Amino acid sequence: MGRLYQSLAAGLIALAAATPAPASAANRVEGVPHFGHVFVIIGENTDYSHVDSTNAPYLMSTLRGQAAWLDSYYAATHWSQANYVAMVTGQFTTCEQKDGGITCHQNVDNLYHQLDVAGKSWKVWLEGSPGKCDGGGSTCSSVNPCPLSGFYTTGNPPILFDDIEGPGGVWSATTPSGECVSNDIPAGDVSDGMSTFNADLAFGDVAAFNTIIPNGCEDGESNCAPVNNRYTQFDDFLAREVPLIESSPAFGRDGVIVIVYDEDERAGSKSGLGAGGHTVCALLSPLLTPGDYGAQTYSYSLLRTVQDGFAVSPYLGAAADVSPLPVLWP
């Protein structure tokens, strides 16, 4: 009997050694596990104090209890374009701080290029825009602007990077790269602004890194009929899209949803890493422990966390000067 028990014990030890570690415990960088698919949904110009149960009932009543909720998250700077750029490069320019559009393009390393090098896919989904990286011709308007004009020049960072937008790394206003045209795309048509994205979600046919840019009403920047409450408009967008992401095969056991605003409402003069003001950042994922996290953190920490989750390096810009998001990953 002693030999039988010894044999069984040896077999169990060998089996345990041969069993791969779960995804949440493997390939950690700074304690951050490997990410399968990431979905970053960006709202506009909202103070932390305005995200309450009246203005954002879905976010506060449904999602907050499921999320890693960052109580002291600060955006990078003021004016939208600079914040969108900071989220993927760790820096910004004075031109971008003035929402200067395509004239602000830069020859600077960025998360999209790092993902390319690592062989990981990315897409930027633009709600309701008939255009993409190459513009949209006569179908563009103030309500449905195209990426090289209007709203999507500020909330659409890939068009600003020479090594992404430009063929051969040379930026062009008329002949963008095939990569940019393929990856910087409309999420749907004018009548159903997220239809393409939602259809791809249903089959799990999405990129590893997805940035979701609602239109100028649903991102929370402007009051629009019939809701006429800009905060609630973004909340309504989340209520439609987040359940679809969570039910997608792409989310699975290693998906991450990030809900974040680009900046606060530009209240007062600020300086330093959090010059864009106090706003909401929340993460949803089977990989993390839900709860409120009170440590002060920055949009650069979000960038660093995404770099860790995809194991790409070096840390970009100010992402090298901060820690990852203060979230518990079991």
Molecular structure report:
With 330 residues, the chain is an alpha/beta fold. It has a single domain (35-321), classed as Alkaline Phosphatase, subunit A (3-Layer(aba) Sandwich), CATH 3.40.720.10. It is built from 9 helices and 9 strands. The protein has helices at residues 2-18, 57-63, 80-89, 111-117, 162-165, 178-183, 195-203, 230-246, 299-310; strands spanning 38-43, 68-75, 122-126, 184-186, 209-213, 256-261, 277-284, 291-293, 297-298. Strands 1, 2, 3, 4, 5, 6, 7, 8 and 9 form a 9-stranded mixed beta sheet that branches. Helix 3 runs parallel beside helix 9. Mean pLDDT is 87; it is low at 1-25.
Total domain count: 1
Mean pLDDT: 87
Q: Tell me about the biggest sheet?
A: 9 strands, mixed
How many runs of DSSP E, i.e. beta strands?
9
Helical run tally = 9
Q: In CATH's first tier, which class applies?
A: Alpha Beta
CATH superfamily membership, which one?
Answer: Alkaline Phosphatase, subunit A
Distance between the termini: 39 Å
Order of helices and strands: HEHEHHEHHEHEHEEEEH
- Overall shape: it is globular
Instruction: State the helicity in percent bands.
Output: 25-40%
Topology (SSEs and partners):
Layout: H1 2-18, E1 38-43, H2 57-63, E2 68-75, H3 80-89, H4 111-117, E3 122-126, H5 162-165, H6 178-183, E4 184-186, H7 195-203, E5 209-213, H8 230-246, E6 256-261, E7 277-284, E8 291-293, E9 297-298, H9 299-310
Parallel strand pairs: 1-5, 1-6, 2-8, 2-9, 3-4, 3-5
Antiparallel strand pairs: 2-7, 6-7
Helix pairs in contact: 3-9
